[in-house]
Fold this sequence. Notes:
GO cellular component, one term: endoplasmic reticulum
Low-confidence stretches: none
Number of helices: 4
Family: Belongs to the TRAPP small subunits family. Sedlin subfamily.
Order of helices and strands: EEHHEEEHH
Protein name: Trafficking protein particle complex subunit
Pfam families: Sedlin_N
Mean pLDDT: 87
Structural class: alpha+beta
Subunit structure: Part of the multisubunit transport protein particle (TRAPP) complex.
Number of strands: 5
Oligomer: single chain
Amino acid sequence: xxxxxxxxxxxxxxxxxxxxxxxxxxxxxxxxxxxxxxxxxxxxxxxxxxxxxxxxxxxxxxxxxxxxxxxxxxxxxxxxxxxxxxxxxxxxxxxxxxxxxxxxxxxxxxxxxxxxxxxxxxxxxxxxxxxxxxxxxxxxxxx
Length: 143
């Protein structure tokens, strides 16, 4: 089940963050997202130590905890996508597929001529599309 999605700009500024759980868990999920950013920065800045496939957009598992797993994706423009899930047995292929669809939705949202680059994404259409993508993967209880 997907519990949180985040889009973080190339300067680590939050562009979009959506929790699909109770408000009580939101702070915990934000903490996991921020911890995941540290892992992304370490992998990007030290490619020899972390992964031989740093040119690949999918960064894989970033930050596992007892109850959550955080996965990352890095765009060509250094925008980071972070997915937090409670499904501890999720397959990488499913996460890759999710990120591809999410990336397409993101590109459509920031291609809007009324969107200001580097600012938060406030589009209701984007939020609805994200919710649809999350539901279609069957990894969330978002309604």
